[in-house]
Design brief:
Blueprint: E1 4-18, H1 24-34, E2 39-44, E3 48-49, E4 54-55, E5 57-58, E6 68-69, E7 79-91, E8 94-104, E9 110-115, E10 126-134, E11 136-143, E12 148-155, E13 165-172, H2 178-188, E14 194-207, E15 213-230, E16 235-245, E17 250-254, E18 262-272
């Protein structure tokens, strides 16, 4: 079974406007459709949501999964995202997204988790960084290895969207080094330098370059920024990320190379820089 799943297309970065009062899922769909894309990623900044619902990572209760989800939280008032990432694609023939973020709730509580697409509404107008991909898309399908329905890359008929560069819709399977997998993909595809767009998944704990470590193994992770580029001895991935673990612990920073294996999955777009 291949551990790195990648489908090549062509893509383009752009700024996407999101309108207050619109469900985040529908606003995202409209934003990509307006540019001719059926799939893509968002890097989220200061986004206000209310109402919205989320879950956090949790331990498995029946052993059928390596980890699972908590019960659903629905904070009162408006919650303000600080950072996060979103993968937009399709599941069961309908638009869907996978989104992890950190935010501060109306009562001042700072937390994070997995935002539920069915229950997230924009409380204010916003503008976010988007990357659309044509010729490939993310699609949710059952994954027997993890016993979840997960986003993965599939070929898609080109829509004719204006696209500027080679781009790959990617999914990394469990139990492989996050950095090494990205470096291998970039090397095998012949890209001199590649930029990461979006990035949503989970790691087995975490280790950061500044020495910070997350010991609880079940995490919800997102990429703030990432690049794979030559460093004199080959290619080196530099990944800045944020996460929440199953105890509610939060962490942010540059991930330590060689010390962050994938837990369940990680999906992202890798594009030539």
């Amino acid at each position: 079974m291949p551990r790195i799943l990648a489908v090549e297309g062509r893509g383009r970065a752009f700024r996407m406007g999101l309108k207050a009062g619109t469900p985040l899922l529908e606003a995202t769909r409209q934003g990509f459709a307006a540019e001719g894309f059926a799939s893509g990623t968002l890097n989220l900044g200061a986004l206000a949501l209310g109402p919205f619902a989320y879950v956090m990572p949790a331990l498995s209760v029946d052993g059928k999964n390596a980890a699972f989800y908590s019960g659903t939280f629905r904070p009162a008032g408006i919650s303000r995202l600080e950072s996060g990432a979103l993968t937009f694609g399709w599941r069961d023939g309908q638009p869907f997204f996978h989104c992890h973020a950190l935010w501060r709730e109306a009562d001042g509580h700072r937390t994070g988790g997995h935002i539920l697409p069915e229950e997230a509404v924009l409380a204010e107008d916003a503008e976010v960084e988007a990357f659309g991909i044509d010729g490939a898309r993310f699609e949710g399908n059952p994954d027997p290895e993890t016993n979840f329905k997960l986003f993965g890359p599939v070929p898609a008929a080109p829509t004719g969207a204006r696209a500027e560069r080679r781009a790959f819709a990617v999914r990394l399977r469990p139990n492989q080094c996050f950095h090494a997998a990205l470096e291998m993909l970039v090397r095998e595809q012949g890209l001199a330098t590649a930029r990461i767009h979006g990035g949503v998944g989970s790691l087995i704990g975490s280790a950061f370059e500044n020495g910070l470590e997350t010991e609880p193994f079940a995490t919800e992770v997102f990429i703030n920024s990432g690049i794979v580029r030559p460093d004199g001895s080959g290619l080196r991935a530099e990944i800045d990320a944020g996460l929440v673990d199953y105890t509610g612990g939060l962490a942010e920073g540059r991930l330590k190379r060689g010390a962050n294996p994938v837990l369940m999955t990680f999906e992202l777009i890798v594009a030539e820089a």
